[in-house]
Amino acid sequence: MNLPNKITLARIFLIPLFMIFMFVPFPLDDLSVGGVTIPLAHLIGAIIFLIAAGTDWLDGYYARKYHLVTNFGKFLDPLADKLLVTAAFLSLVEWNVVPAWMVIIILSREFAVTGIRLVAAADGEVIAASPLGKWKTIFQMLAIIVLLFYNIPFAFIGWPIGMILLWIAVILTIISGIDYFIKNKHVFTHSM
């Protein structure tokens, strides 16, 4: 197993650790920053998420730079991304930080696209992420990170930056999903 695939596996193994800090009631103090109180366990979980999200860039960098792209990596990397994003969004819904309908739109698109990719892969076709899809991912990750960190430092000035980023992510999710289905409609017609 090459280094990028090991990094991707590390991302998957960080997900349960992230969830433990999000939901297990640890006897840790809260941290107060400028009037915003963050449970220390949540802060640790948010840092774990940040590290895990960073591994997505890292594994891709090594895979491209050292020509270590594998079919296993092409399968595992998007799966790891979806697992991490799903865990974070479900945590935010559980805390009543984000509305469930926004998360349902995002996750529905993710699983639908994964399904199409699997059908295409069965026919020997690899469907790469589009630029719109990459922007969607960037805004999803930014929204999650800001929301996990309780909207700090923007909470001090009263700007709901986390929710603004999430709205942009939802809009990009819808647009990139439509674009993805239109550009890959041949997968449906060929497979029927």
UniProtKB/TrEMBL annotation:
Pfam families: CDP-OH_P_transf. Pathway: Phospholipid metabolism; phosphatidylglycerol biosynthesis; phosphatidylglycerol from CDP-diacylglycerol: step 1/2; Lipid metabolism. Its EC number is 2.7.8.5. GO terms for molecular function: CDP-diacylglycerol-glycerol-3-phosphate 3-phosphatidyltransferase activity. The keyword Lipid metabolism applies. The chain crosses the membrane at residues 12-28, 40-62, 83-107, 138-157, 164-182. It is found in: Membrane. It catalyses: a CDP-1,2-diacyl-sn-glycerol + sn-glycerol 3-phosphate = a 1,2-diacyl-sn-glycero-3-phospho-(1'-sn-glycero-3'-phosphate) + CMP + H(+). It is an enzyme of class 2 (transferase). It is a multi-pass membrane protein. Keywords: Lipid biosynthesis, Lipid metabolism, Membrane, Phospholipid biosynthesis, Phospholipid metabolism, Transferase, Transmembrane, Transmembrane helix. InterPro entries: CDP-alcohol_PTase-I (IPR050324), CDP-OH_P_trans (IPR000462), CDP-OH_PTrfase_TM_dom (IPR043130), CDP_ALCOHOL_P_TRANSF_CS (IPR048254), Phosphatidylglycerol_P_synth (IPR004570). This protein catalyzes the committed step to the synthesis of the acidic phospholipids. Belongs to the CDP-alcohol phosphatidyltransferase class-I family. PANTHER family: CDP-DIACYLGLYCEROL--GLYCEROL-3-PHOSPHATE 3-PHOSPHATIDYLTRANSFERASE 1, CHLOROPLASTIC, CDP-DIACYLGLYCEROL--GLYCEROL-3-PHOSPHATE 3-PHOSPHATIDYLTRANSFERASE-RELATED. This is CDP-diacylglycerol--glycerol-3-phosphate 3-phosphatidyltransferase. It comes from Aliibacillus thermotolerans. The gene is pgsA.
